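Summary of Year 1 activities. Much of the first year was spent building the evaluation harness for sequence design. The harness presents a backbone, in tokenized form, and records the residue chosen at every position. We chose the following record to illustrate the format because it has been used consistently in internal testing since the harness was completed.
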């Protein structure tokens, strides 16, 4: 499945804008996203991700392929539902994957025609709006549609970075402003 997605900062009136466009609230979810490092390749350099998402309605393991275009976050996304988050994480660790980061957010989801629009309150980052269309293949019309939604609801230009990438930048900036060149090393015992 190809996920055609764009996101931007959300203004205070984002929900009103979505509703005025005809959006229908379909749910509110809490997400805990656990990201993993691969033992065989650097996901940051290949622009991939492996994520275990814990939601109110279950647990999902997702592979995200590299972004396919320069304007949106369009990429291959493969997701399977799993029964047990702890067992799934242990399985991945047994294969050499290691927990890298956790992203937590509260998501309000709206249906807007063929798109899902989400208002995300992301711990450590603030509020964003995402527009997404799932398709069997890339489509210029789908890309134009998600960009149109984002320009109508969001603030500023679309952001191609993931929440994980944005959190890493925020952490690096915080470390730099505290005088560290990188995250502080753990003291030796």
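For this record, the design step produced the sequence shown next.
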């Amino acid at each position: 499945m190809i996920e055609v997605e764009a996101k931007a900062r959300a203004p205070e009136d984002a929900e009103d804008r979505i509703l005025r466009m005809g959006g229908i609230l379909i749910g509110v979810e809490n997400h805990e996203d656990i990201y993993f490092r691969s033992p065989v390749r650097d996901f940051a350099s290949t622009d991939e991700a492996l994520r275990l998402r814990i939601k109110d309605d279950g647990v999902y393991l997702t592979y995200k392929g590299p972004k396919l275009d320069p304007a949106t976050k369009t990429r291959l996304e493969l997701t399977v539902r799993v029964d047990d988050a702890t067992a799934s994480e242990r399985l991945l660790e047994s294969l050499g994957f290691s927990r890298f980061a956790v992203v937590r957010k509260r998501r309000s989801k709206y249906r807007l025609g063929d798109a899902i629009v989400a208002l995300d309150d992301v711990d450590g980052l603030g509020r964003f709006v995402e527009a997404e269309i799932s398709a069997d293949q890339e489509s210029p019309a789908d890309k134009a549609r998600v960009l149109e939604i984002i320009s109508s609801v969001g603030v500023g230009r679309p952001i191609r970075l993931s929440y994980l990438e944005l959190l890493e930048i925020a952490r690096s900036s915080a470390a730099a402003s505290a005088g560290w060149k990188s995250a502080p090393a753990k003291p030796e015992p």
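Confidence is low (pLDDT under 50) at residues 182-189. Quantitative recovery figures across the full test set are reported in Table 2.
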